[in-house]
Amino acid sequence: MGEQVQELRALVAIMLRPMARLLQIAGISCKDQNEEFRIASVLVAQLSLPKGVGAKNVSLISARTGLTRRDVRKILGILAGVGGKRKSSARRGGHRGQRVIDAWCYYSRFRDEYGNPKILKISGRRGSFAELCRLYGGEQHPMILKDLLNVKAVRALPDDRLELLRRDYAEINLSKAGLAALFEQLAEHFETVVHNLTHPEARDQLLCRRVVNFRVDAEKAKLLMNDATDGVNSRFDHFRDQFGDPYYSAPQDSTETKHVSLTAYLTVKEGSSLELGELPPPDGAK
């Protein structure tokens, strides 16, 4: 593997940490997210195929993504709405805690006469939380119990009993609109950075500026943040008016349009970030 590719992998690992944090909070497993990444890889490969090559050229998509031809055919079927669903089984794959909650809510053995999740005995054989984990969790019940208690998805009751408090592993206090805006901004940021990396000429670059101090005095950080926020907000009032000016908007029936956005954000975290010279060596490197 080339040195540049190894370096890129190390940098991607840094970028993935906050994403992994959000996914774990939401109860989304690596298996589930890996499927979405495979689908995204096939979509990107389709967009980059040479002229005259069909979008369903399995061999070329396989070569570009590293996926097997079988996997490519399966994903193409999912994208076409044939032969597969983008939904995890309650028995295999997926987040273990969420799988246990899904089974608790779905299977009659663990529901009462009204169809609601029963209050279960934690230990025991038939109809217990231990059996639920053994059948659908793929893990010993003490570990899953500890995890579900930690995220407050269940509540321990007297006499070795357990009550389910909600039907989702994690309670994220973000609206659907808020989550959509979050990932739209992330996608726009990555698209801009990748565009600039692949178009090195200054005339082809999109606006993407960054200023950073890795060692800000803790007592002065708030002052710096306030100054930066006030400065950006004053400029954004102007940009908001300009972007909303009808002069720049296309007619309703126009098909020749561009999506243009300008985003600014201020980040602050404890300690200094990893700089390029401090990156850990790739797996297998000495």
Q: How do the strands and helices of this protein lay out in sequence?
A:
Elements: H1 3-26, H2 30-47, H3 58-65, H4 69-79, H5 96-106, E1 120-121, H6 129-136, H7 141-150, E2 154-157, E3 161-164, H8 176-198, H9 221-243
Antiparallel strand pairs: 1-3, 2-3
Helix pairs in contact: 2-3, 3-4
What would a concise description of this structure say?
Helices cover 48% and strands 3% of the residues. It is mainly alpha-helical and 286 residues long.
Q: What is the straight-line distance between the termini?
A: 14 Å
In total, how many domains does the architecture comprise? 3
Shape: extended
Helix segment tally: 9
Structure explained in plain terms:
It is a single chain. The protein has 286 residues and is mostly helical. The protein has three domains: 3-79; 96-164; 176-244, no CATH class. It has nine helices and three strands; from the N terminus they run αααααβααββαα. It has helices spanning 3-26, 30-47, 58-65, 69-79, 96-106, 129-136, 141-150, 176-198, 221-243, and strands at residues 120-121, 154-157, 161-164. It has a three-stranded antiparallel β-sheet with strand order 1-3-2, with helices on one face. α2 crosses α3 (58-65).
